[in-house]
Write a structure and sequence with these properties.
This protein is of the alpha/beta class. The protein folds into two domains: 249 residues, Alpha-Beta Complex (Spore Coat Polysaccharide Biosynthesis Protein SpsA, Chain A), CATH 3.90.550.10; 40 residues, no CATH class. It is built from eleven helices and 13 strands. The strands form three sheets. A nine-stranded mixed β-sheet has the order 5-4-1-6-11-8-12-10-9. A hairpin with a 2-residue loop joins strand 2 and strand 3. Helix 3 packs antiparallel against helix 4. Bound molecules: uridine 5'-triphosphate (UTP). Belongs to the UDPGP type 2 family. Its EC number is 2.7.7.9. It catalyses: alpha-D-glucose 1-phosphate + UTP + H(+) = UDP-alpha-D-glucose + diphosphate.
């Protein structure tokens, strides 16, 4: 058991995943694999490695595979046992028996509304929020912000630097440096700034939230997009509570669309013990093909 205050995590995974159609017509985007492991398994593993004891996944219509993935598969286990396939058996069983709980968001009314569904599970504790389609590679980001919460007792938003010409695609944090490297005071937040971005630090799908956020979420109505935005709740929260940003220096992948998933798959292949030896020469060969292709253009 960890001594940290943050022991619970919430993973919203009830979104429609329209940016990944047609793949997500019948399959939850969170279950799409990065090579051979569903995206949501990376996220669950990150939370558990950070000392989280209980995880709540917010699911919805058509998300049954997520629960099945974290459940035992008796037929598969019997089959692998009978064939003596111990290594595969380990892979098939290591995702069962975890402390994962589920609740359903009845309508996909946005991230803010999804988080609101965690209220009873969270009670009065601070908690870790991990977005279902943000994957990190490098230091355990959840662990970093859990440790930071011990020190500051303030809501924390993790951020990653993006190219300045890409800020219009992200939630951007307006920040002021503190005494501590990588830690900033948040002055404001702007969702997808089209003209002038206050910085290039983008919110990267990991937060430590405090239970008072639920009081604000309960008062919010869906905005022009028809969705309740978590950012709106955080902007309101900031009027009475200080917010911190933590700048993550590892890699961050948004796997909620095909491009992000492809980038993640390529880089994670370099870590994969059974794939990397064959894949690295292959990718070098492909890179050469791209070069000649570009020369022809
Ligand atoms: P996204 O912004 O990626 O939204 O949500 P989305 O609806 O899933 O995807 P697109 O835009 O249609 O392609 C960020 C995270 O919040 C969850 C998603 O499952 C994802 O993990 N979410 C989003 C919910 O749980 N409920 C919602 O109503 C919206």
């Amino acid at each position: 058991m960890s001594n940290y205050k943050v022991k619970k995590a919430v993973i919203p995974a009830a979104g429609l995943g329209t940016r990944f159609l047609p793949a997500t017509k019948a399959i939850a985007k969170e279950i799409l694999p990065i090579i051979d492991k569903p995206a949501i398994q990376f996220i669950v593993e990150e939370a558990l490695a950070a000392g989280i004891e209980d995880i709540l996944i917010i699911t919805g219509k058509g998300k049954q595979e997520i629960e099945d993935h974290f459940d035992a598969n008796f037929t598969l286990e019997q089959n692998l046992k009978a064939k003596g396939k111990d290594k595969l058996l380990k892979l098939a069983t290591e995702t069962s028996n975890l402390n994962i709980h589920y609740t359903r968001q009845d309508h996909p009314r946005g991230l803010g509304d999804a988080v609101r569904h965690a209220k009873a599970f969270i009670g009065n504790d601070p908690f870790l929020l991990l977005l279902g389609d943000d994957i990190i590679r490098g230091d355990n980001l959840s662990q970093r912000i859990i440790e930071l919460y011990e020190e500051y007792n303030q809501t924390i938003i993790a951020g990653v630097r993006v190219d300045p010409d890409q800020t219009k695609n992200y939630g951007i944090l307006d920040i002021q440096a503190t005494q501590k490297p990588q830690v900033y005071q948040i002055l404001d937040m702007v969702e997808k700034p089209q003209d002038h971005a206050p910085s290039n630090l983008a919110a990267a799908g990991r937060y430590i939230l405090e239970p008072q956020i639920f009081e604000i979420l309960d008062t919010l109505e869906p905005g022009t997009t028809g969705e309740v935005e978590l950012t709106d709740a955080l902007i309101e929260f900031q009027k009475s509570h200080p917010l911190l940003a933590y700048e993550y220096e590892g890699e961050w992948f948004e796997v909620g669309d095909a491009k992000g998933m492809l980038k993640a798959a390529i880089i994670f292949a370099l870590d994969h013990p059974e794939i990397k030896n064959e894949f690295i020469p292959y990718i070098k060969q492909v890179a050469k093909k791209f070069e000649t292709h570009n020369e022809k253009d």
